[in-house]
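Quick question, first post here. What does this chain look like in 3D?
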Amino acid sequence: MKYEIELGDRVQDRISHSKGIVIGITDWLYGCRRVVVQGETEENGKPVDPFTLDEPQVVVVDKGIIQIGGVKKVRPGGPREDPKRHADPPRGADFRDVDLRARGAIL
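> Answer (accepted):
Ran it through. Tokens below.
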């Protein structure tokens, strides 16, 4: 299904007249389609938080301001290495006793 509003479009809220770029779109179980908009203006030198609107409340001002095609994400999650799993402890080991012995609390 093709929708009028797509990621990267510049849109405007019909009620508050706030403008921004569409950074997310969600489809809900009972047909509600919500649009997440990142405001382009700043308030007191700080970026505006993203806001979410129902699709019928949004008007497209400019199509395709930010192109998302051709972006290939090799690994999700950023540049951090995948976590390594530590070896399982031996069966029957009670680490509370081991820790207390190391501290000298148990002889």
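Residues 10-62 form one domain.
The longest strand covers residues 19-27.
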